[in-house]
Amino acid sequence: MEFLTLLPPDEARALLMSHLSSGTADSESLDSFLALGRVTAEDILAPHPLPEFARTSVDGYAVRASDTFGASESLPAYLTLVGEIPMGAPADLTLESGQCALIHTGGMLPANADAVVMLEYTQTINREERKEREEIQKRNLSDFARFAVGSEIEIFRPVAVGENVINIGEDVRTGQVVISRGTSLREAEIGGLMALGITQVRVARKPRVGLISSGDEVVEPSQPSRPGQVRDVNAYTLSALVTRAGGEPLRYGIIRDDFSALQAMAQKALTECDVIIITAGSSASTRDMTADVIRTLGAPGVLVHGINTRPGKPTILGAANGKAVIGLPGNPVSALVNGYLFVVPVIEKLLGLTPRPRPTVMARLTVNLASQAGREDWWPVRLLPPSPVIGRGAGGEGYNAEPIFGKSNLIFTLASADGLLRIHPDATGLSAGEIVEVMLL
Amino acid sequence: MEFLTLLPPDEARALLMSHLSSGTADSESLDSFLALGRVTAEDILAPHPLPEFARTSVDGYAVRASDTFGASESLPAYLTLVGEIPMGAPADLTLESGQCALIHTGGMLPANADAVVMLEYTQTINREERKEREEIQKRNLSDFARFAVGSEIEIFRPVAVGENVINIGEDVRTGQVVISRGTSLREAEIGGLMALGITQVRVARKPRVGLISSGDEVVEPSQPSRPGQVRDVNAYTLSALVTRAGGEPLRYGIIRDDFSALQAMAQKALTECDVIIITAGSSASTRDMTADVIRTLGAPGVLVHGINTRPGKPTILGAANGKAVIGLPGNPVSALVNGYLFVVPVIEKLLGLTPRPRPTVMARLTVNLASQAGREDWWPVRLLPPSPVIGRGAGGEGYNAEPIFGKSNLIFTLASADGLLRIHPDATGLSAGEIVEVMLL
């Protein structure tokens, strides 16, 4: 009934990972605009360059750079305005030497132009005309072009070839991998797909995670709880966890403490899902039953029974036919914390996700925390705003991290926490005043 | 055409917020298990205590604590086993002095019991019997109880009243506010709701954010782009941003650079939405048109035209009839960065969201970055894993933050970034080696 050896959590996780089928086999095609948070199943290549044409990055005059060389406030270059570049269409003009064309940010450079002079470094010769031009320009650009063509423009600064121009392919080149396989799509990636006209994207199918609750004392949340009974919390906290990690939770309900019933349901879930999670009843004997069930599901069965972490010591990691089978403690806090530690990484592996830096918050610990050497502790903490006296730390928010003391099986302890503080297995504790890293919940 | 004054971003944001109707008027009722990420519209009170009955937090023997006082290895207390507490039901027994009952983690204390002795500090008198008991207990608990009732149990350690017991209401008391209004629901809160049998929850309606793209050069992503044209990126990056912030995006399509058409569409969106965002074409004149349109929509109209931030200087903040109307630059990077800075806070205000600490990553800047005093700069940065030589910083991941240089209107610049680095308006730059805070994208 007691565990012989408790594995360190990192080692336990690595052992589990080594027994899983690598990556996800399946992928699906999706409208790109619906793909926020989904993970690409293949490298995405640019079908054409971006931009597709040389454009200006400023409002000004498209010129031949050589026409401006040597221009200064005291000795301006004089160019003849030959037209205005329309937005959204190629110019129907070609610059000859000594000519320029009015162009607006994003506009396509006309033939022979190789640079753009910003409006602020120019002036029309006739000052009266210039004032009028500015008025008209504010209202209606095309009127201006009709009006001003033929004006002389003074250029007060020289521009180099390519100045204020975004060249073809400067953002991406044809055939360039713009988004690698395994990328979780954020706002910017979706924008990039749209810029390239890629309106469908192939993403990893969401791993299906089967959730089985067990325990004679556990009832559905919609039921009134009688003396001795508790409502099922774990199926729902873990559903939310799976959803947030990019998986699809499937709930298989509550099974009584009966080996055959649990075994049958686990077998069914294993067939239908990519991962199964059994949350045991709270007693040691039901946890042992979970381990026994996992042993029947397929090779290699139980890999780790007991992990040197708090909360979560009784967590069971197993695998059957390349699929992860995880037994979590019935205690809702242990189940959820160990869900972050072991279920999320499994989902991410199945998604083929390339890890990104994890969001954390640096904070100053308010009290001493003792820890047993060799054990990894995860403390729920509240993050309190920086003291107005101490102010912001060097580059940090200057939060204070206040551990929440209380029995570990109280779900509202975790609900009142902003994050989890890790005490490394090598440490025997942390001291008040230390700067610690808090994983946000 | 040029901006007279550029407001600091914090001041601009505060001015916008002061003109919005406070909080969201509407709320809706939702199944609690679907409410991940939604924001509570009212305080949630516990309808009953948690736990609802005194339970044990360990496997062991329920006792009257006074029967164990003075017990030690050399001088154990002797108690008569009178039965086993079933899981999920009240015990049908009452402890008399000198008696104990086998109880499993989570089990309900029997009448007269006030503490639990852990199994490891006990022994049955007959060692043969004990061994057999352990075997049986592993397999089937109820067999054990039948078998062992009447045994004498040796207790080697005393327990205090309440030891290893979770009392009624120790997690939450009846009527206690367990989740405050304005809380974004995470895994733990959903678990807490389930524990209390609260299967429906009242949450803020998702604010509807109308998105209008303008610009003669802008075409739908599904269309082939002709020379001079660009595909609409902003409607989709901002849709994703709005979704992630907890709002509901509504896209109103692409409007040509025509005052009346833009005015009519903005008016329609204002009627149907809680917030509207107009992304201008890239030229200065179309941005001015956006401001002119905002002025026609209602009081007070344009509040801020030009913000001292890079990217994003041409951003327009306005309000009409208590609703935010925001004009973002056509440049996709500016639009998205300014979306994080100004659109997300508006959505959070409408949701009535109580802010949580923002996830960030501390990192070491790899190069010097210059900045203009008074201007707030947001640099896209890549976070590189810690150098194996330097190792982890004090409590931090030890990432290096490498700014991505490049013209600011290239969407793939942002797609290749892990986060944004802020240079405070008071700073004239940052030095290589400084520890900086990176907002993850």
Tell me what the structure shows.
2 copies of one chain form a homodimer. Chain A is of the alpha/beta class. Chain A has 4 domains: 9-26 and 205-351, Molybdenum Cofactor Biosythetic Enzyme, Chain A; 27-51 and 169-204, Molybdopterin biosynthesis moea protein, domain 2 (Alpha-Beta Complex), CATH 3.90.105.10; 55-166, Molybdopterin biosynthesis moeA protein, domain 3 (Beta Complex); 360-440, Beta-clip (Beta Barrel), CATH 2.40.340.10. Helices cover 24% and strands 28% of the residues of chain A. In chain A, the strands form 8 sheets. A 6-stranded mixed β-sheet of chain A has the order 7-4-6-5-9-8. In chain A, strands 16-13-17-21-20-18 form a 6-stranded mixed β-sheet, sandwiched between helices.
